[in-house]
């Protein structure tokens, strides 16, 4: 800390010598730096490093969404694991990601400190001005804490494709500064630094504090950003030339209303001009003002009603009308532009098919017809889906003769068909305005292979993926829950059996899915018995993540085989004197294990499982 302060004073002195007494009086006081320094933290995990700052003394910390986002292509909402926060005094804490958003690029994490922390104070970022002195504190990659000073060079940047306007500063925002604070001269937070321009020097961008505070509150309450609106319409500013053409000086122009949507049913029409909301006049003459209006609307509470005063008609035939509409929570955002999206990919590797839930914005982006179903986002060449002729942006509307309206319905009907061993499963798809029929012919490379899935009572993260891949491969699946099934999971059409009635010797494979409580699983007598029965008949044993510990602990012979497990259980593996390797997937004899780190690791695990039992 002493070295940091000394270096800072040298910088400030240099500024004084170069700029004279007048500008020296405007430099950031050293006592301000000392005061805010304990509030800034470094953040690191297995995929990235960044910065953050403390907003509550009991351990709430703000940063960027991209700093704590995971790298799972099938689930863009999944955060990174093993997040560590490093305090100004080098003290380290494990952190939990409470929620994050990619646009605006904000995340909230929580640590459990052993003493009250030093929280920041926020400035009123709506009053920020061009030329205002500011400074950033962060932890660039490979460096200690750094201080960079400058000024706000723009407070209304709207050309970066972001959901809100952002600030621009010439205070250097280096790699690793992401998520750190931009302070004003008195040490109040103006916003969260998010990224720097890659092709230009001295251009950094900051999400304004008033936006960040709303996101912080949403994540604390809901675990996510809750957007509302009257879906689905687009509005925008009325600049001078447009205003003269429309015969209107002020308002918000509605560019588009999607037929059949709540906005359409409420009575909005393309070309309408909103001049007031709940009696309060509104207008936007610039893109920045339009984004401000949009932000004010989407951050209202779901279920509230809003009264819109509308001007409609040709310039000389305008009429004023009122529309009252209920603001609804918006659907998750699909991937679009810079936004990676919030919708999970449901991938059937055995079929070469990837789908997503269909939302209204998909229809706008892809110009899709108003039909229910699931959206195809990709197929693999030479796969069953590829041979069926399925293409990206197709909507699958029927599986067999059953009409589907969601991913859940699609999965249930597909699994029902594959469990029957249907050689060809009829599909009806909508491609643009054309209705097509085709059939998908699964390969069933695990046909009639009997597999027992032991499902721990605690949350089993990868169970849905494992189940759908094995079922669509033709495996004969039986599920044995340990206790009650979690509410978040579905067995679909798979058969079930009580754990105490399952016999490990009757199955080609006994597979234990991941568990949040491996110690309880290890102590379960039925789990031990089933594993020992399978081992006695030299059946294949497989386990995901921390559940590997329960498998190798059940029989001494298994401890001699190479195995892997989740990082958090590596110590437990060592204590058992198991042959722990730490590899993503480990295969030795009749034992197959995986870290269960992400979907990629589990998919590689399933590939190895196929090789074992085919």
Based on the model shown, name its key terms:
single chain, Pdz3 Domain, disordered N terminus, Thrombin, subunit H, seven-stranded mixed beta sheet, 614 residues, seven-stranded antiparallel beta sheet, alpha+beta
List the helices and strands and how they pair.
Blueprint (H helix, E strand, L loop, with lengths): L1 H23 L5 H7 L3 E5 L4 E6 L5 E4 L1 H4 L14 E4 L5 E11 L2 E6 L10 E2 L10 E6 L7 E12 L8 E4 L11 E4 L3 E9 L7 E5 H14 L5 E2 L3 E4 L3 H7 L5 E6 L4 H5 L6 E5 L2 E2 L5 H12 L6 E8 L6 E8 L1 E2 L16 E3 L4 E5 L2 H7 L7 E6 L4 H4 L7 E5 L2 E2 L3 H13 L5 E7 L2 E7 L9 E6 L7 H9 L4 E6 L13 E2 L12 E4 L5 H6 L1 H12 L3 E5 L3 H7 L7 E2 L6 H6 L3 E2 L4 E4 L2 E4 L4 H15 L1
Parallel strand pairs: 7-12, 29-30, 29-32, 30-31, 32-33, 33-37, 34-35
Antiparallel strand pairs: 1-2, 1-4, 2-3, 3-6, 4-5, 5-6, 8-9, 8-11, 9-10, 10-13, 11-12, 12-13, 14-21, 15-16, 16-17, 17-18, 17-19, 19-20, 22-23, 23-24, 24-25, 25-26, 25-27, 27-28, 36-37
The global form is: flat
| Chain oligomer state | single chain
User: How many separate structural domains?
Assistant: 4
- Structural class, by secondary structure, is alpha+beta
CATH architect. name of the largest domain:
Beta Barrel
Short description:
The chain has 614 residues and is α+β, with helices and mostly antiparallel strands. It starts with a helix and ends with a helix.
What does this protein look like?
- The protein is built from 16 helices and 37 strands.
- It folds into 4 domains: 2-222, Thrombin, subunit H, CATH 2.40.10.120; 228-329, Roll (Pdz3 Domain); 346-440, PDZ domain (Pdz3 Domain); 450-613, Rossmann fold.
- The longest helix is centred in the first third of the chain and has 23 residues, at 2-24.
- The chain starts with a helix and ends with a helix.
- A hairpin with a 2-residue loop joins strand 17 (273-277) and strand 18.
- Helix content is 25%, strand content 30%.
- The protein is of the alpha+beta class and 614 residues long.
């Amino acid at each position: 800390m002493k070295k940091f302060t000394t270096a800072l004073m040298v910088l400030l002195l240099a500024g004084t010598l170069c700029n004279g007494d007048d500008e020296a009086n405007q430099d950031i006081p050293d006592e301000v730096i000392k005061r805010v320094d304990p509030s800034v933290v470094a953040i690191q995990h297995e995929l990235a490093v960044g910065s953050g700052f403390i907003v509550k003394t009991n351990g709430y910390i703000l940063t960027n969404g991209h700093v704590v986002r995971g790298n799972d292509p099938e689930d863009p909402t999944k955060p990174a694991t093993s997040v560590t926060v490093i305090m100004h005094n080098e003290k380290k804490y494990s952190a939990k990601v409470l929620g994050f958003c990619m646009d605006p690029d904000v995340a909230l994490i929580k640590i459990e400190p052993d003493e009250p922390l030093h929280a920041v104070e926020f400035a009123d970022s709506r009053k920020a001005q061009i030329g205002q002195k500011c400074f950033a504190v962060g932890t660039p990659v490979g460096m200690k804490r750094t201080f960079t000073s400058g000024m706000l060079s723009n407070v209304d940047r709207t050309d970066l494709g972001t959901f809100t306007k952002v600030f621009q500063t010439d205070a250097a925002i280096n790699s690793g500064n992401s998520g750190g604070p931009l302070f004003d001269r008195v040490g109040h937070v103006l916003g969260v630094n998010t990224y720097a321009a890659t092709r230009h020097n001295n251009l950094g961008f900051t999400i304004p504090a008033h936006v960040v505070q709303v996101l912080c509150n949403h994540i604390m309450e809901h675990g996510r950003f809750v957007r509302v609106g009257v879906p689905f319409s687009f509005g925008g500013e009325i600049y001078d030339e447009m205003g003269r053409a429309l015969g209107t000086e002020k308002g918000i122009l509605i560019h588009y209303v999607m037929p059949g949507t709540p906005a359409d049913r409420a009575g909005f029409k393309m070309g309408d001009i909103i001049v007031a909301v709940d009696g309060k006049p509104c207008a936007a003459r610039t893109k920045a003002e339009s984004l401000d209006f949009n932000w004010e609307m989407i951050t209202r509470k779901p279920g509230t009603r809003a009264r819109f005063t509308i001007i409609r008609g040709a310039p000389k035939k305008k009429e004023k009308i009122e529309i009252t509409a209920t603001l609804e929570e918006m659907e998750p955002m699909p991937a679009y532009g810079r936004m990676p999206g919030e919708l999970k990919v449901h991938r059937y590797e055995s079929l070469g098919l990837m789908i997503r839930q269909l939302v209204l914005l998909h229809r706008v982006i892809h110009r899709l017809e108003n039909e229910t179903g699931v959206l195809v986002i990709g197929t693999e060449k030479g796969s069953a889906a590829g041979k069926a002729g399925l293409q990206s942006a197709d909507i699958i509307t029927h599986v067999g003769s059953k009409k589907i309206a969601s991913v859940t319905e699609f999965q249930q009907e597909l699994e029902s068909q594959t469990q029957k061993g249907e050689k060809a499963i009829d599909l009806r798809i909508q491609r643009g305005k054309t209705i097509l029929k085709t059939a998908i012919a699964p390969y069933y490379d695990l046909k009639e292979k009997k597999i027992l899935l032991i499902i721990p009572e605690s949350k089993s993260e990868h169970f849905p993926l494992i189940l759908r891949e094995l079922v669509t491969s033709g495996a004969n699946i039986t599920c044995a829950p340990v206790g009650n099934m979690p509410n978040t999971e579905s067995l679909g059409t798979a058969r079930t059996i009580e754990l105490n009635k399952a016999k490990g010797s009757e199955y080609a494979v006994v597979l234990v899915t991941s568990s949040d409580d491996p110690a309880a699983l290890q102590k379960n007598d039925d789990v031990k018995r089933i594993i020992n029965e399978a081992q006695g008949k030299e059946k294949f044993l497989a386990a995901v993540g921390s559940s590997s510990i329960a498998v190798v602990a059940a029989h001494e012979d298994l401890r001699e085989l190479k195995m892997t497990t989740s990082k958090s259980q590596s110590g437990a593996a060592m204590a058992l004197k198991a042959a722990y390797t730490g590899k993503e997937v480990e295969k030795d004899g009749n034992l197959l294990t995986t870290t269960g780190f992400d979907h990629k690791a589990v998919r590689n695990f399933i590939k190895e499982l196929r090789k074992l039992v085919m």
